[in-house]
Amino acid sequence: MGAFVALLDALEEITHRISPFIAGGVLLGSIYWIAITYGAVTVMQVVGHREGLEMMESADPLVLLVLLPTIPVTLISAKMYNWEDSVLLFLRKYCAKIPALAYILPFGNVEGDRGAIISGQQNNTNQNGNSHLSPTRIFCSALLLPTISTIIGKIFFRSVQNNLHRTILGGLTYITIKGALKIYHKQMLYIRHSSRKILDYTESNLKLYRSAMASSATDAVSSTNDSEQVI
């Protein structure tokens, strides 16, 4: 076909080989600049728009190119650590016998072997990478943390004049309340799971199960009729 066609074939082969690397470089560069933009917006949101701009204008550009992308990475990495489980295990181990704490966080009458089995199952789940949490949930909640902290700080800590201090207080308040609710929810699930029993497949247990199902269905129908009457 001639030397010119051979040259075109070689160029086509080279283009086919280097295209994935170019696409990967463009993708990584886009992610890097998105991280820089998010870091700059977060700095202006947390510190204040004018104060953030002045701080970034006075800083070394090379330092900004290195530090700003670490902000979203740090937020996502911190979100992946499930500190609520550590606090809950500490409360179960050392604070379960405190009477005053039982009114706030019920511990229930969980038998030793049964509680150990349930705790072992929960620990295995946590060691497997928090399978109950989706990556998208971790990503969104981590990146929305500065915005939520700023909003809570402006609502509940208006007397604080410093924007950074106000945002930190709002973030700590949000993390503490959310963590307390998650600890309470996990403890109630722990009590419910550890209280379950497996019944034998007997006629008496079948009658008990069927009567419970019939009563629950009757309650559901009656509640539906009451709601319709109210409407």
From TrEMBL:
Protein name (Swiss-Prot/TrEMBL): E3 ubiquitin-protein ligase MARCH5
GO cellular-component term (any): membrane
Record keywords: Membrane, Transmembrane, Transmembrane helix
Organism expressing this protein natively: Euphydryas editha (Edith's checkerspot)
Taxonomic lineage of the native organism: Eukaryota, Metazoa, Ecdysozoa, Arthropoda, Hexapoda
Compartments reported by the entry: Membrane
KW Transmembrane (keyword) present: yes
Domain of life: Eukaryota
Membrane topology: Multi-pass membrane protein
Entry keyword annotation includes Membrane: yes
Membrane spanning residue stretches: 20-41, 62-81, 136-157
